[in-house]
């Protein structure tokens, strides 16, 4: 198993948290995980992306040419990285900010209105976890138990009260993808 994942969006959209959760989940499950962040000049509102590698083999380099999966939180990120998705890859995008249907030859593209779903939950900051749920439903890369354990650690005691809404957001993302009837993994 080897997954090269590019996660990209504006600073403040939870791009880095998304990537870290994937990498930490790998190590929690006793496989190799690597998270490599890249920031634009601003933290909030600037561009942000990260590369994540999840593998059952040794990871020799933090970079890769083509992503197996692209998670794009906004249009500039989609446009920047869409051509670097491997054949038979997955493009998961924020349909709240990317209105046009995305089509990329040789890839499956799935749009999820993560902002609207997060607002329905009463916390727009969990849009990244709605996207996480959609990603998990499509890839089946980690179990809910693993993700919940990592999010719990990630939030710590100070933000422990946010665990429930984050897990609800993940479930909403999973449910949305189930409703589409799309199978990827």
Automatic annotation (TrEMBL):
InterPro entries: 2-oxoglutarate_synth_KorC, Pyrv/ketoisovalerate_OxRed_cat, Pyrv_flavodox_OxRed_cen. Residues 11-174 form the Pyruvate/ketoisovalerate oxidoreductase catalytic domain. Pfam families: POR. Keywords: Oxidoreductase. GO terms for molecular function: oxidoreductase activity, acting on the aldehyde or oxo group of donors. This is 2-oxoacid:ferredoxin oxidoreductase subunit gamma. It comes from Hujiaoplasma nucleasis.
